[in-house]
Amino acid sequence: MKIIIDNKIPYIKEAVQEIADEVIYAPGKDFTPELVRDADALIVRTRTHCNRELLEGSQVKFIATATIGFDHIDTDYCKQAGIKWTNAPGCNSASVAQYLQSSLLVWKSIRNKKLDELTIGIIGVGNVGSKVAKIAQDFGMRILLNDLPREEKEGNESFTSLNKIAEECDIITFHVPLYKEGKYKTFHLANETFFRSLKRKPLIINTSRGEVIETGALLNALNNQIITDAIIDVWEHEPEVNRELLEKVIIGTPHIAGYSADGKANATRMSLDAICNFFQIDGDYEIKAPAPAFPVIHAKNHEEAILQMYNPAEDSSRLKSQPELFETLRGDYPLRREEKAYTIKYKE
Q1: Mean pLDDT score, 264-290
Q2: Could you say which DSSP state residue 50 is in?
Q3: Which of 2, 121, 262, 318 has the most CB atoms less than 10 A away?
């Protein structure tokens, strides 16, 4: 079996040798029809567009994307061509929640806010949004949830409208998939109309997809103080970043909210498991993230410990100083572990 793999997918090289006869690694943006023509399977990230242009005439039977999102896969074409595919739902949900947790603490410190006096609106309450809700609960925040697909299935008891979130929330955070059309369309969900409906000059956070927020509308909202601040990890037209927006956001990062080593290891494991299931292979491999350089944290309190484990202000500073290195900063992202990898010792 021959597999082509994005060369930025970590912890995979030893494991994949257990299941494949031939493996080729390539940058995600450099997958070509010639490269994939005689491959049986692909393991990709969001930078590889799996469509007719790439796949027609190939012998690819299976695609695994080591990501939650799958809008880079032309699912209609794959169905027509008989190519099966899978994503990795929930793989990095704890990582994104960690990013939110640390980002809120940074914002709280800079703006001298008391989180337990604020209301947060969570738009999209799936794997990630549910974990963000738990973090908000731990901070003592009032929480409003918006999730149209879940509300349709479960009823409106636990959910509220976008209008109510716009009226009552001090923080609004987006955790939705990107749907460009249809009943649950999320493309430019936060547009001029949305920003005009805001009542409390909230903090806006986006770690979902760049296209969920209309860049011009967000810039206008910041320039006219319709919103207080923005924390942005995902951008329209990545890897090109709107420089004016990057300068104005309080935290701006290169699409790395889900990039903890734990999340990456989960995605790699899920991708290989899916290939083994599809091709009916018994894979004997272990995938785990490396230990942190300093696994023992000494801190006065839990909030200080959280920021010792991960402080997004450092990622923001790197991107703001060299925005042209967006892809490099993302592709060569340093090791970040989640809380379970650490022992916390509190100072007397």
Answers
A1: 94
A2: B
A3: 121
Give percent of the chain above pLDDT 90. 95
Closest C-alpha among 238, 336, 97, 123 to residue 246: 238
Residue 16 CB burial class (10 angstroms; 0-12, 13-18, ≥19): buried
The yes-or-no answer on residue 209 being catalytic is yes
Query: With contact defined as beta carbons under 8 Å apart, do 205 and 230 qualify?
Result: yes
Task: Look up tokens 């923001």; give the residue.
Answer: 316
Q: What is the mean pLDDT of the chain?
A: 96
Catalytic choice (151, 238, 304, 327): 238
- Residue 98 backbone class (left: φ over 0; alpha: ψ -120 to 50; beta: rest): alpha
Q: Is 237 a catalytic residue?
A: no
Residue 320, amino acid? K
With a cut of 90, say whether residue 132 has pLDDT above it. Answer: yes
pTM: 0.90
pLDDT at 291 over 90: yes
Map 67-128 to HEC letters.
CCCCCCECHHHHHHHCCEEECCCCCCHHHHHHHHHHHHHHHHHHHCCCHHHCEEEEECCCHH
pLDDT at 18 over 90: no
Per-residue model confidence (pLDDT) at position 315: 98
User: Does position 348 have pLDDT exceeding 80, yes or no?
Assistant: no
Average pLDDT over residues 110-139: 98
The one catalytic residue in 47, 209, 269, 336 is 209
Is residue 212 within 8 Å of 188, Cβ to Cβ?
Answer: yes
Tokens of 132: 């963000």
Of 45, 72, 255, 337, the catalytic one is 255
CA 154 – CA 21 distance, rounded (Å): 46
The C-alpha atoms of residue 269 and residue 284 are separated, in whole angstroms, by 11
| Residue 332, C-beta contacts closer than 8 angstroms, at least 6 positions apart | none
